[in-house]
Known about the structure:
The protein is mainly α.
Amino acid sequence: MKRFEPFLKSGYYIGFIFLVTLFAWSFYEETPPHLFNLYNMMVVFGLIALNTLLLISFENTLYTVPIVFSFLFIINNSTIDFNSVGQLGFPIIAFGVFILGYLIYFIKYKPKFKAKTFYWGLFLIGLSYVIPLIYTPFEVNGIMVSMAGFIYFGIYLFYSNTIKGNIDYLFKILLIVNLLLTAQVGLYLYRGYLLNPQLDFYHRIYAGWGRNLGWANINDMCFYIALTFPSYLYFIFKKPQTYLLWFMMLLPTAVVILSKSRGGIIGYAAVLLGVMLFFFFRGNKKHLFHGLIFLAISSFIAYQIREVFYIWWDFFLDSIGDDLNDFSTGRISIYLFGLDVFKQNPLFGGGWLSINGFPGGNLFGGRVFMYHSTIVQSLAAMGIFGFLALLFHYFQIAKYVFKHPTLEKFLFLIGYLASQAHGLIDNVQYAVPYSVLIVIILAVFETSEKTTSFESKKYRYHFIETN
């Protein structure tokens, strides 16, 4: 396998993994008698086999990161809930085979584990997940959900001690993930276009085929796009002559607008603001010149298709409703309920299934449902302890970024803050794909040997490579 390592280090390998992921996800209809599409299952098992082979062949687990990330965005079944998990042999078998690869890795390489930079913050969050199990009514589903925090902690512990990180490799992954998510939303819009021939062109491209895209709904897609969007800047700053990257940024921008996700617009506006500020304060003359050209061309294109923005504004006005609760799609009622749960259990919260007590009973079909706000979720499910654990995690990230500032750290921070802004009104911080992404990204960052450091203010428009 060593002879294939140059390929594994390349962007071609990363691109191949996510191209296969897009192919597998695109088969969104079931193939009876299977609840999942047969092609989706075949690709998942194929990627698991490759992941296991890489774990057996290389002590450095960096090459498994594209595959692990692909698993977060590949599932295309939109009807999974707690009531059906026991009937779905495919995900259970797939998970078992997936874990087998890591067991073999432990046996072969015997890694030693140390507490790294983000250890205690993630440990405390994991602890805050499970404490409510002590005093809340016993439910099997509650155990499954409450163990997620320690699963994320375990993923971080494993990768932070087995990866030999590479920042350039990470940003290649993030860029291709952004393109993958953009393509998934694009297919969502294209299918909606095909299903609505009676509409005019502009309304057809807004149609979509539904809000759920299998592994997530359309709002989730948008904050993952915002999280990974600053990866374009990394390559623009590294290779300022690469003009194509400037115009590639129009693609995620277009799909976020056409998604009609109001929360998505908030997070995406935050990341665009962060990107523009970064260009202004850290760009050299060439960057700023290219940025002005890009802005002029983008403005011209936007003017030519201004009908898109008129329709979006009409949609926004129609969504306001009679009161704030209608405008928030019922979120205000959920927030108030969550705060009541917090008042009843202020120290450690009401647990992860407390949302099932929302007036009207379990309205969500057994699905893992959250409080649509990072703050309310923390307080309601995990109480003051969970909220303080989250703040400590934030503090560790901020300390890491600003202790030795680098180009890559600031770009990560821009996307992270944008996604957290979206998290004020949606399920972001504690979403499964988001949590896995963040802990692995942090693990790659702190184990990387090569970073791009800012020079002194006198030469602030330049970057230097350091080892």
